[in-house]
TrEMBL record:
InterPro entries: Palmitoyltrfase_DHHC, PFA4/ZDH16/20/ERF2-like. The lineage of its organism: Eukaryota, Viridiplantae, Streptophyta, Embryophyta, Tracheophyta. The keyword Transferase applies. GO terms for molecular function: protein-cysteine S-palmitoyltransferase activity. Its EC number is 2.3.1.225. The DHHC domain is required for palmitoyltransferase activity. It comes from the Eukaryota. Keywords: Acyltransferase, Membrane, Transferase, Transmembrane, Transmembrane helix. It holds the Pfam family DHHC. It catalyses: L-cysteinyl-[protein] + hexadecanoyl-CoA = S-hexadecanoyl-L-cysteinyl-[protein] + CoA. The chain crosses the membrane at residues 20-47, 59-80, 179-206, 218-240. It comes from Populus alba x Populus x berolinensis. This is S-acyltransferase. One of its GO terms (cellular component) is endomembrane system.
Length: 318
């Protein structure tokens, strides 16, 4: 009876993961649809015509349109960079570096063992590895680098996995986490700009103010204001959460692990923690790309190696 229950649970999880994969294309269309409606309301129906009113109205319309298009370009660039960039997977033949003299795994491999024998002389009995520092994925049946987790939706292990996001139809991991954060950042700025630019029209709905346009345009303006206000408020909380995670050098998954381990070994200070996600080159901090210099001199950006706090390393040796 118990075995049957486990089978049903596994089947339900499989159906859920399959549904999330199928939802992907729908979410992309939804995102582009919201952007399209917003573009029509802001540019075509309101501030585009206002350019020809003259005086202060034309100047304000010009500023709004310049800011709107600039933020929209950065939002779309960040969004598709997140969608199209592989978050980072474990190569089929990847193995942790081993100290041949002592037989110990590289300390960067991490803690914990979750798998079966993969050829490093571990006992066949699960839970009794010869080297407890090795991490193995039971689903992929391969070694796991430090800070790597298995994604049931993608069906593979993801380097420095943060979470699987249905909005970007992709996992958020080591290679696209920066792009995801920039997507949140520019989405928050753009939705805030749209909310403020349409606020006077929204207030006019409930007062005696005069609103020009067809009934369809008025409905679209009302819906656009409500949607952008909702997104701005929700993304603000989400953005604040991820900023705190970046400054503490943790991911969403690791935030739960950190509760049981207050001395987080990867916390190198806010400056270095930030650079491990955004790179050292300041010119690339606000664009979804890395400079060639950063990619060459910062192995951490490739998702396999992560420096730890020297003071904690010394304590572990004692």
């Amino acid at each position: 009876m118990q075995k049957s229950g486990k089978s049903v649970m596994a089947w339900n999880v499989f159906k859920f993961c399959t549904a999330l994969r199928a939802l992907g294309s729908i979410m992309i269309v939804l995102v582009l649809g919201i952007i399209g409606v917003t573009y029509y309301v802001v540019v075509v129906a309101n501030y585009g015509p206002a350019l020809f009113h003259g005086g202060l109205d034309s100047f304000i319309a010009f500023l709004v349109l310049v800011l709107f298009h600039s933020l929209l370009v950065m939002l779309l660039w960040s969004y598709f960079a997140t969608v199209l960039t592989d978050p980072g997977g474990v190569p089929p033949n990847w193995r942790p570096s081993i100290d041949e003299e002592s037989g110990d795994a590289d300390p960067l491999v991490g803690l914990g063992y979750e798998g079966t024998d993969l050829g490093l002389n571990q006992p066949a009995t699960f839970g009794e590895p010869a080297n407890p520092q090795l991490r193995v994925c039971r689903k992929c049946n391969q070694f796991k680098p430090p800070r790597c987790h298995h994604c049931s939706v993608c069906g593979r292990c993801i380097l420095k996995m943060d979470h699987h996001c249905v909005w970007v139809v992709n996992c958020v991991g080591a290679l696209n986490y920066k792009y995801f954060l920039l997507f949140l950042f520019y989405t928050f700025l753009l939705t805030t700009l749209v909310t403020l630019s349409l606020l006077r029209l929204f207030i006019a709905f409930f007062t005696d103010g005069v609103i020009n346009g067809t009934p369809g345009t008025l409905v679209a303006t009302f819906v656009t204001f409500v949607l952008n206000l909702s997104f701005a408020l929700s993304i603000m909380g989400f953005l604040v959460m991820h900023i705190s995670l970046v400054l503490g050098n943790t991911t969403t998954i690791e935030a739960f692990e950190k509760k049981t381990n207050p001395k987080w070994q990867y916390d190198l200070g806010r400056r270095k923690n930030f650079e491990q996600v955004f790179g050292v080159d300041k010119r690339c901090w606000f664009i979804p790309a890395y400079s060639e210099e950063d990619l060459e001199r910062m192995p951490v950006l490739r998702g396999f190696e992560y420096p730890t706090r020297p003071d904690l390393d010394e304590l572990q040796q004692l």
